[in-house]
């Protein structure tokens, strides 16, 4: 892996216990998918990392350097199918104190790769083929979900609740609208139009979300960036979630009730095909 300017064996990487990511979740992250040894949509992911850094008043990350590190790590680790994980924290500040260190400290910058096993790739394919189920949960996060912060406890608890109920994803409901998943953006097909919550401070503007909106518009669909009313789930034709790792995954039931006819629909199929063509060439 890569840690603070050096390539180090995973087992030997050390981060001080008083790193602010560990104590305060004072850090940001990104996840990039690697297809056939190539990082997909690397540039928008790194641009979002830089934006998150600015919002947390972290030093501006060196995006050219991180681009080089990405390619080098993929090469060194022989990643064919997998992900690259980036994390930047405000570094070590001892003794523990909430406010930023008085003297600037070096941020902790780490990049690591995770290979995906053929079984994991196949499981993703199966979910995209057959669809998944979801539950709804009340929004309990902060009002800056546009920042990709490592502070993910409500997301973790929501996903765990979904898992315990045999569902794949938990969808956050804010003021009666389904806004996003615990680790995905959500789209509905309502009266033929594709509806997804607008990019604002309440959701993460997913890189997959942005790509899918572009694809949908170029395929001739109407995309409305507005709230999906919870009550509309009973009358929408299709529902799907998007993310870097799940791509375009259909949701065929929510809270035990089928979406549309309970089968994967044509809009999802068209968007999956467009995504796949871009990702796999
Ligand atoms: N929303 C949340 C809360 C997420 O954690 C993620 C995935 N990191 C997404 C949306 C999707 O973002 P992306 O398409 O960039 O993976």
TrEMBL record:
GO CC annotation, single: cytosol
Tree of life domain: Bacteria
Keyword Transferase: yes
Keywords: Aminotransferase, Pyridoxal phosphate, Transferase
Listed PROSITE patterns: AA_TRANSFER_CLASS_4
GO biological process: amino acid biosynthetic process; carboxylic acid biosynthetic process; D-amino acid metabolic process
Cofactors named for this entry: pyridoxal 5'-phosphate
Residue stretches in coiled coil: none
Keyword Transferase: yes
InterPro entries: Aminotrans_IV, Aminotrans_IV_CS, Aminotransferase-like, BCAT-like_C, BCAT-like_N, Class-IV_PLP-Dep_Aminotrnsfr, D_amino_transT
EC class (word): transferase
EC number: 2.6.1.21
UniProt xrefs under SUPFAM superfamilies: D-aminoacid aminotransferase-like PLP-dependent enzymes (SSF56752)
GO MF entry, a single one: D-alanine-2-oxoglutarate aminotransferase activity
Reaction(s) the record says it catalyses: D-alanine + 2-oxoglutarate = D-glutamate + pyruvate
Family: Belongs to the class-IV pyridoxal-phosphate-dependent aminotransferase family.
General function of this protein: Acts on the D-isomers of alanine, leucine, aspartate, glutamate, aminobutyrate, norvaline and asparagine. The enzyme transfers an amino group from a substrate D-amino acid to the pyridoxal phosphate cofactor to form pyridoxamine and an alpha-keto acid in the first half-reaction.
Subunit-structure text: Homodimer.
PANTHER family assigned: AMINO-ACID AMINOTRANSFERASE (PTHR42743), D-ALANINE AMINOTRANSFERASE (PTHR42743:SF10)
UniProt name for this protein: D-alanine aminotransferase
